Amino acid sequence: MGYRRKLFSVKNPFDTENTNEIFLAAVRENCEFHYKNCPEYKKILDSMGFSPNDLKTYEDIAKIPPIPTLFFKSHKIYSMPKNKFFITATSSGTSGKFSEIGFDFLGLLNGLNMVLKIFKWRNITTLRPSHYIILGYRPHKGNNTAVTKTALGYTFFSPALSRTFALKFKDGKYSPDLEGVISAIKKYEHSRCGVRFIGFPSYTYFAMQLMDERGISVKLPKNSKIMLGGGWKQFYKERVDKRDFYALAKKTLGIDEENIIESFGAAEHPILYCDCKNHHFHIPVYSRVIIRDVNTLKPVPNGEMGLVNLITPMVKATPILSVMTDDLGVIHDEKCGCGINSPYLEIIGRVGVRDIKTCAAGAAELLNELEETK
Fold first, then answer.
1. CA-CA-CA-CA dihedral for 11, 15, 20, 25, to nearest 10
2. pLDDT tens-digit map of 76-100
3. How far, in Å, CA of 327 to CA of 318, rounded?
4. Which residues pair with 344 in a beta bridge?
5. CA distance 203 to 196
6. SS in 3 state form for the chain?
7. What is the mean pLDDT of residues 188-204?
8. Contact 329, 346 (CB under 8 A)
9. For 118, phi and psi rounded to 5 degrees?
């Protein structure tokens, strides 16, 4: 059994304190694979004076050169032939460019194991059927975005009686259908089965706001849930305080805060960060998070704000071992009172593209040099 499989087989998904050595071994194993099978990744590591052999202690994980997610939006690099990918997923591409991430079969299998454990902990998995209102994209053959695949995947953790989509594909583009969402909400108010909302917090909020403006309020079945993910994207300026969101959900839908669940992740880092009952993103055993100084990129102590660097050995098809996001965050060591002991990540906001472009520039130049030498 490889170290990656051992890591994803750990019984307690939040036992980070006792899994550092397994995580180090899995990271070293993953780094060696990409170094041997992806010339572009090898070029990047070599230029930074780093090799998999440098991963001797757990603290050495912070030395792995992080590749910005912005870089993957402009360069397609892989550690396996594309015909060996089990699936390919892309980022949402709201800026006009998108990352294309290939997944190997065993990586996806480990990912499924992760999701099952975390969903069991969060009481999401049930045999009781539900109606689904998906505040996201209706799937179609030209849409390979990770957020669309994830939202559809969520509908299999409680048997789906129906699926209503907020964003429908017509005439070559997606358009919101909030009227259809509100009609579905009113229709399922008196259903014996719960209603599960899945998708972008922005469209969820817009639908609830429209209901509130029209004086519409319902009381959905008590086992209804709101499961948020994907972030506010292009509607970041319209982002509202979580407390205001929870209050509006209670007022318009009759759903209590305890049944509102938020997740965090990225196409370039397919690890599920699911909030606890106190709405904190505890770091699971499958990943580690390093906060880096915005100017120097050096790790900062927990409690200080900086760029969020995400590390996981989950995928072999694409070298996404260590990625740098454009998110600003803080890692908190203090116990939040939910019963989980692992640190939790707080996302503060996002930096501008110009602030992270310099991070990606070095890697981009290396790839250009590599192309010239072929």
1. 20
2. 999 999 888 888 877 765 555 778 8
3. 21
4. 282, 332
5. 14
6. CCHHHHHHCCCCCCCHHHCHHHHHHHHHHHHHHHHHHCHHHHHHHHHCCCCHHHCCCHHHHHHCCCEEHHHHCCCCCCCCCHHHCCEEEECCCCCCCCCEEEECHHHHHHHHHHHHHHHHHCCCCCCCCEEEEEEEECCCCCCCEHHHHHHHHHCCCCCEEEEEEEEEEECCEEEECHHHHHHHHHHCCCCCCEEEEEECHHHHHHHHHHHHHCCCCCCCCCCCEEEECCCCHHHHHHCCCHHHHHHHHHHHHCCCHHHEEEEEEECCEEEEEECCCCCCEECCCCCEEEEECCCCCCECCCCCCEEEEEECCCCCCCCCCEEEEEEEEEEECCCCCCCCCCCEEEEEEECCHHHHHHHHHHHHHHHHHHHHHC
7. 92
8. yes
9. -70, -35
d(C-alpha 282, C-alpha 338), whole Å: 10
Cα(252)–Cα(267) distance, rounded to whole angstroms?
32
Please give the model's pTM, rounded to 2 decimal places: 0.87
- For the stretch 284-309, pLDDT in tens is 999 999 999 988 999 999 999 999 99
CB atoms within 10 A of CB 213: 8
pLDDT at residue 140 tops 90: no
Cα 149 vs. chain centroid, distance in angstroms?
Answer: 12
Closest CA to 249 of 290, 279, 293, 209: 209
What is the C-alpha to C-alpha distance for residues 52 and 58, in angstroms, rounded to an integer?
13
Cα–Cα distance for residue pair 335/346, rounded to 1 Å: 13
Q: Is the model's pLDDT at 363 over the cut of 50?
A: no
